[in-house]
Amino acid sequence: MKTLKRDYLSFFNLIDISSICINIYLLQGQWTDSDQNASKIILRIIAVSLMWVNLIYWLRVFEDITLYIRLIS
Fold first, then answer.
1. Crossing angle of helices 38-58 and 11-32, rounded to 10°
2. Would 18 be classed as within a structural domain?
C-alpha cells in the first residue's frame, strides 16, 4: 500500500494538483474582489506556467511526439 501512495505522488501529479489549487484560489479571489496585487500577478504567472507544463506532458499521447517529450524530461 505504501508503494501506491509513493507512485501517486509523482512530480506530474503534484503539478496537476498545485495547478488546480492555484487556479481555484485565483478564481475565488477574482469573484470576491478586484484587487490587483503583485502577489496575484505572480500566482497567475505560476498558474499559466503549470498549465503549459501539463499541456506539454499530455502531448506524450501522440506517438510521434513522445520521443521528444521524453528527451526533454
1. 140
2. no
Residue 8 inside a domain? The answer is no
Give CA–CA dist 24/35, Å, rounded: 16
Q: What is the pLDDT along the chain (73 residues), one digit of tens a residue?
A: 555 566 677 777 888 888 999 989 888 887 777 666 777 888 889 999 999 888 888 877 777 877 877 787 6
Positive or negative torsion for Cα 34, 36, 42, 48: positive
Q: How far is it, in rounded angstroms, from Cα 16 to Cα 14?
A: 5
Domain count, the chain: 1
Domain with 66, as residue range(s), is 34-73
Query: Does 21 fall in a domain?
Result: no
Domain presence at residue 67: yes
pTM of whole model > 0.90?
no
